[in-house]
Hints:
alpha/beta, six-stranded mixed β-sheet, two-stranded antiparallel sheet, elongated
Amino acid sequence: MKTIRRTPTLLALLAAMIALSVALAAPIRAQAQTGTEEPVVYAVLLWSPQCPHCHNFIENDYPKMVEAFGDQFQLIFVNVTTEDGRALAQAAYEAYGIPPDQRYVPMMFIGEHVLVGGYEIPVRGSEIIREALAADGLPLPPIPGLQEAYEQALAQSQASEQASPAAPDTSDTLGARFSRDPLGNGLAMLVLIGLVVSLVAVVRAGVKVLSTRSKRKPRCLTAPTCRVAALLAALVGVGIALTLIMEAGGGLAMVMSVLAGLLLAAAAVGLIITREQELPGWLVPVSALAGLAAAVYLAYVEVGQQSAVCGLVGDCNTVQQSPYAMLFGVLPVGVLGIGGYVAILAAWALGRVKDARTRDAAQAGLLVMALFGAAFSTYLTFLEPFVIGATCAWCLTSALVMLLLLWLIAPSGWAAVQRLRQA
């Protein structure tokens, strides 16, 4: 932890903040020209490098507050993606009684006040600072361990000033991102490999189907192969859903995770007990409903800017607070997921009609949606370990559902495409 000081440029300020796991402001007291001490207001900000609202405050609002209050406002930056930062954030949550489903960033503690979001922090925070400075200032928030961390940072700052320290290292390597959550990121890489291999296998099988007049399906699209691939996806999805159930504690997260887990479990049981050459058709809507449950909860988190229940694997909030949670900066990925799963359910229902051509068109459409969904899931899953450095259990559940749907839909989908071409 190091001391953050006012810098002549905004770029230098940002570089220092991103480099430090817990950045602490200094000095303790500002001295007036008369030699008397002026009141000082101390505050703590919980932030994340992947949080766009945090960056907006740091880049735009914080410099204005520094300009307005100078050294009389001392803000302690706590990066919640580091080990020390998470420990201090947990102590802050407990000290202020913040419920688990409301623990998200940016969050500022000033005296007895808790401010949240890119609007409340600069606006309401400035009002609180003015009122406190008109009185006798505000001490460090009553967070266990904060005083010790602050004093340690001051001592390190004084020592580094004497030693003429080098510029902070602001690099963010792949190794550093992966090490933030090795278990979650490792699982994401396994899911990513499964998606890539499945996409390649299904596309190659489709090319063989379309390049021959034979009605025989390629080996990789026969029922036993599909059953094994889909079964693995369903079982891993059940495992992730169970971790969400264990951590949810109630509310919408509990309902959605239970629903997703039950539906994925039903799909797994169906894959295990069926003896049919063709996989049962009801596995498609059951799997799509499980994905829809995950998408509904993600949309709730993204649209309402809520704190997500993350389960025992990964860090959902870091992922959801990253810019990649919004497509083109406008459309929440969860909302896109809802639309995709509803479209899959509608196409599946349309494929139950008696008219053969309509049925083939619906099955071909299902194949296109499954391929697109699996490809988009591949992109999102790649971002988690390699770009964001964190994994979302809800996102992995949706990715596994798309993997399951790809193997369930591909055989009949390619056969329908072949029939449409020959018609």
